[in-house]
Description:
One of its GO terms (molecular function) is ATP binding. Helices cover 41% and strands 23% of the residues. The protein is of the alpha/beta class. α3 packs across α5 (119-138) and α3 (95-104) packs parallel to α6. Bound molecules: adenosine-5'-triphosphate. The site of adenosine-5'-triphosphate has 11 residues, from β2 and α1.
Amino acid sequence: MPLLELDGVAMVFGGLTALHDLHLRVEPGELVGIIGPNGAGKTTVFNVITGVYRPTRGRIRFLDADLTGLPPAEITRRGIARTFQNIRLFPELTVLDNILVAHHFRAGYGLLQAVFRGPRFAAEERRMRDEAMELLRLVRLEGRAGQPAGSLPYGEQRRLEIARALATRPRLLLLDEPAAGMNPAEGRELMQFIRWIRERFDLTILLIEHHMPVVMGVCQRIVVLNFGRVIAEGTPDQIRTNPQVIEAYLGEQEEAG
Ligand SMILES: Nc1ncnc2c1ncn2[C@@H]1O[C@H](COP(=O)(O)OP(=O)(O)OP(=O)(O)O)[C@@H](O)[C@H]1O
């Protein structure tokens, strides 16, 4: 049974069809890349999966339940977390507090406990702090815990953003261009990190990425979108040599490069 399944998903914005009849299956434990030229619909795929947009047509199933039309917070609670193309940390908050914000999301106390700071609240707060520090240790940011997130070097902010997504304990992690703005060495390091978290947290990962070497190096399977349609799907080797892909995407990169 697939972990995630998009069945005939379409997304229409006014007169523009961003996604046409999209079918996508992701098996548990897979690391799947989504590539395609600018405006192909990649981020829109993430936005319909995470409930930012309700698809115009089609269904989205996750863990054998129908997610279509659920609000984003409920989708996070069911085990899907994401990062964004542009880093969206709280720059003035400390590194630790950025993680705690995500932990509070699944806190085991109600509003009354939080307002009156009952014993359950204190115990829960301690537990969440410990867990957050443990997560920071795993991603090698524990030395930064007290610093404002905005003061971290770019690569560490990316890692913190991924750690914050992990704090919601996802089964499925959606990464939107995590290597954007990185040099090739930083990109390679990030990919090793992504492979490592997949093992460590038993994750399934969907990854949007423009950096070809990054995608080819890390993904088992690649889905290529163009004008909101899947034009190819396969292993990195199959994609690298697919004439339609070369025409739609790799050719474009060569021209740009
Ligand atoms: N909220 C929206 N309203 C109107 N049009 C939108 C909206 N969101 C996306 N689009 C359009 O849908 C198409 C697909 O956009 P999307 O951001 O998914 O592409 P992308 O493949 O992620 O591109 P990029 O690589 O540039 O990030 C684009 O033509 C875009 O302008």
